[in-house]
Specification:
Elements lengths: L9 E5 L4 H16 L3 E5 L1 H4 L9 E3 L4 H8 L4 E4 L16 E3 L1 H4 L7 H11 L23 E8 L11 H13 L3 E4 L18 E2 L5 H9 L1 E7 L2 H8 L4 E5 L2 H7 L6 E5 L7 H11 L2 H17 L1
Parallel strand pairs: 1-2, 1-4, 2-3, 4-5, 6-7, 6-9, 7-8, 9-10, 10-11
Length: 302
């Protein structure tokens, strides 16, 4: 992709519906603002958390029927993926930057680091920082409940999810070790997880995303699949243990802000098909528990 050689004065960031992608793109929003460039963010997830991003102009997601009109006032439009939320965005605005090349780059850096480098090297911003600007609300205390372990057993697709029965066994193991494991799922997913309460496990009832963020900010730890909630925990500087199907995916999409560990389920599987099908069976409860112990040790030494 060519450098953004023309000076930027007003930028529209169009975010996808994915929480993780949205939090990552807020790194670009923050760096633009740090350099005195007007930026407006269009995205539903971040709009639902607008109180956590003070000073940033945030609007709901764009609709295709009024997208061109709303983008006309900006000199530059930036979108992460070529196909979401809009395909052929270049037809709607004369200067569009698509950042898909960052996702596919042969790099060991996380996406948070790649987007930071994009701000420095391609946007040529003088002042650059990896943070995405998320700011805790008044009255909250960071990691106020050090024994509370947020467990997020879901993801955007089922192939990214470790076995539910093993998440439950892990939670019981953590509880027996003195921790307070609590499951967090989206409101529409709750009915599939209420059975864990019969085992004496907690299914947090949190409501909107901004309330999930407040709850996460006071947790001691996070364990979950490759998901947006993992990125949210990481951006809040909660130590994270993330379970991934593939090493390449983890290299790019691992949470990239706070202290974290990544566990790869398919490390010893030879083909892509086998990795996708069997990775979740290769990760035992004890392997995940051991990785959590390593995370605790890493955090103690940080």
């Amino acid at each position: 992709m060519p450098h953004a050689t023309q000076p930027l004065s007003s930028v529209a960031l169009i975010l996808s519906s994915a929480l993780g992608d949205s939090l990552l793109m807020m790194t670009v929003a923050r760096n633009l603002r740090l350099n005195g460039i007007a930026v407006t963010v269009f995205g539903q997830q971040i709009n639902n958390m607008r109180s956590w991003f003070p000073g940033i102009d945030i609007e709901p997601e764009l609709r295709l029927d009024d997208c061109a009109a709303k983008l006309a006032r900006f000199d530059t439009v930036i979108q992460l993926h070529a196909n979401k939320p809009f395909v052929n965005l270049e037809r709607l605005h004369p200067k569009v930057l698509i950042l898909a090349h960052l996702c596919s780059a042969n790099s060991t850096d996380s996406m948070a680091e790649r987007l930071t480098r994009f701000c420095r090297d391609e946007l040529r911003l003088a002042q650059v920082d990896k943070g995405n600007g998320i700011t805790p609300l008044p009255g909250l205390q960071h990691r106020h409940r050090p024994l509370r372990v947020a467990i997020h057993p879901m993801a955007s697709t089922t192939d990214k999810c470790w076995l539910p029965s093993r998440f439950i066994s892990l939670a019981i193991k953590l509880r027996d070790s003195g921790f307070d494991p609590q499951f967090v799922v989206a409101p529409e997913e709750r009915e599939h997880w209420t059975h864990i309460e019969r085992l004496g496990l907690t299914l947090a009832d949190l409501g909107p995303l901004d309330q999930v963020a407040a709850w996460l900010y006071e947790c001691g730890w996070f364990i979950g699949n490759d998901s947006g909630i993992g990125h949210l925990a990481s951006s809040l500087q909660i130590p994270t243990l993330s379970l991934f199907m593939r090493r390449g995916t983890a290299r790019t999409w691992r949470p990239g802000w706070g202290v974290g560990q990544v566990l790869i389920g398919s490390a010893y599987l030879p083909t892509g098909r086998l990795k996708e099908r069997y990775w979740k069976y290769m990760l035992s409860v004890n392997k995940v528990a051991d990785a959590f112990d390593r995370l605790r040790a890493l955090t103690a030494n940080a």
